[in-house]
Amino acid sequence: MPQKWRSRPRHGKGPAGGPAKRTQEKSSRAQDLTKTIAELARNKQLKRAIATFHKFEEEGLQPSVYTFSSLINAYVRAADVPGALEVMSAMKRHGIKPNVSIFTILLKGYSQEGKMNAARALLDEMIAQGVAPDARAVNAFFRGCLYHGDVPLASDVFSKMESSWQLVPDSISLRYVVQLLSQGLRVSAIKELMKKLQKANPLTEHGGGKTMGRQACKFWASGTCTKGVNCKFHHDLEASPESQERMQQEKVAAMAAMNLSMAHAAAMLGRWPLCRRALKCAEDFYESTEEGGQGGVGSHGLFQELSREEASREIQRISHFLNQEQPPEPYSFLCRTFLFGTEPCTEKAELAQCCVDELVRSFGLGEVLLRVGLSEEDARTSFRLCLSKKLRLRGSQIFAPELHGKRKIESDPPLPMKMEICSGNGDWVIAQAKADEGLANWMALELRHDRVHQIFSRMVFRKACNLCLLRGDAGRVVPAHVQPESMSHVFINFPEPPHFSGDETAESKSELLTGSFFSQLHTILQQDGKLTILSDNWRYVRRLVRTLAELRDENEQMFLSAGPRNAKNAELCETLYGIDLFCGMPDKHVGHKKKTTSYFDRLWTKGQHLDRYYFMVQKA
Ligand SMILES: C[S@@+](CC[C@H](N)C(=O)[O-])C[C@H]1O[C@@H](n2cnc3c(N)ncnc32)[C@H](O)[C@@H]1O
Known about the structure:
CATH class of the largest domain: Alpha Beta
Number of strands: 12
Number of domains: 3
Bound molecules: S-adenosylmethionine
CATH topology of the largest domain: Rossmann fold
Shape: globular
Structural class: alpha/beta
């Protein structure tokens, strides 16, 4: 119950009537409304959350810090950070100070939008306002760095945690930072952090001197203390053997994840003995937890199980590459990786410079250049050649066979170009590109930096030379950098609905698959070019069909159904607005040449979302 209301003195005759009863009624009404806002925030229903908030004023109720934090969360979940900041200002005008959870929600908001400098400034603002960041807050920041590939900012905050904020990095912080360092090929820095974790004793370290005397932690004994090493209160080791065991398990699991990251970086650099050692450590851990594992119930348990399975797949993938012992050649693949930033560039040279800077900052291009004896200028030249004057990607250059510094123009007629948008970790697009070698070239476009790195890693390990990677918001990258009429087929697998239930009323400023985005796809498709969409979400897929069917250019329909009626693995379930919608797994007739599962396919299958729906349309 919010303190403000609880601490108000009771007047009058008590609950039977009078002011005390009215105060109690008001308090419980305010709590109910706050709960409603929190629920609407979870479902991304911003307008309804705002309308509910207005009831406070209408009914003369006092919003609490929880009411404001729920409303701020509603704005952030609808990808409206400026709106969230306005609520925070209003809250301050009400005389309520923002707490660490409100700052954490805002940090998440900035992280989602890739505004990592603003997130960094917010951490300083917290401190200036006397709110100490906790592990959840910094981990929200590190997650943002991981999603957007900001190694320098993560390193800066990591170094400040202990020295300035007396905050001990927990296993989650360490995992995030090591993953980032691994992407940047910073093997020595990873080694240092691993040593640090090895030495750390999670049972006896308590917040670098912040401990509040010997006052006991209320949550420790029941095993529900979530502060870990940063808890300010005393953890009585005798009182909770379960908590002790859990913290040890977390440490061992973090070590295994860090070893996997180390193995990956070592493989990328061809440092086979280091890779082998790290892989063995990770393997030993995942084998020992395979049966029964770390447990967990419900969706959390399923998620843990999937994480273990994915880690085992990762071990196999690295082992396979390791056993070949062929020198990795990341340079040519880095030259096909375009990490577009959030700020638009206007000049070719400027964009080439940005691409190189980003690769140096977060994909270890500097280290790779040293190994192949090339300079950053060579890399910039290569990127400049791949861009047209209008900053569009030139397939003829990107996929030219000679990549070291200079590129040749292909003399043969260009191969068809295909593209997957929202590629996730790239399992699907790599399989398709490999099946299309010599037949088509592919582009994979993904927003999250860490996922682009996962695709990059698959591209290097599988030597997928007919694939190029684009990092960025498809809503910006497609119109700015993809040549009009260049694509023969575009694919989107398991797009994220604005709200996961596919609720029609959910709002998000970051929703990608709108009418205007489909118009952009229409522009980049060749005549008769195809678009195939696969989803597990029946309501959402119907909404997409409708959006596409209603798109008009001077009264002409822009997309038409492309069947196919001969689909073998699926049955036609509906023809909606003239577009055939199928239930089942897509096959080669809709461009899925190679049968394979993607990460989200496996995730939904685990959660018993077994139905799959798809449709294919073509440019009219
Ligand atoms: C549900 S996942 C599906 C990933 C993959 N297709 C699969 O099947 O595993 C959706 C992906 O879309 C990416 N995404 C979301 N919005 C995007 C945008 N505006 N531009 C590019 N990618 C986006 C997300 O980062 C995420 O990886």
